[in-house]
Amino acid sequence: MSEITPAALKARLDANDAPILLDVRQDWETKLCRLANAMHIPIEEIEFRTEELDPANEIVVYCHQGVRSAAVAEYLRQLGFRDVKNLAGGLDAWARSVDPSMRRY
Length: 105
What we know:
By secondary structure, this protein is α/β, with parallel strands linked by helices. It has one domain (3-97): Oxidized Rhodanese, domain 1 (3-Layer(aba) Sandwich). 37% of the residues lie in helices and 17% in strands. The protein is built from 5 helices and 5 strands, in the order βαβαβαβαβα. The protein has a 5-stranded parallel beta sheet. The radius of gyration is 13 Å and the shape is globular.
């Protein structure tokens, strides 16, 4: 599976080389913390909302710890999405290594 580390994603965002960010967490989780400009499609809705995503775009999928997002990334790859990555360790790893001010849960 293709993954991107929080540090590598941060470097890309800082360089204005941003992929599409796809948050697959529950609504209540997004209210606690999230990455700016992320698209939100809860994991249980992904199969009904894939038309909102462009298979040609680079997409980084994230969740709390990277487990749900890994499943969604694999699902999208099976549908023919060419460039899908999972955020390794999810937002928890992001908060620990990139943005200590982000709320953790």
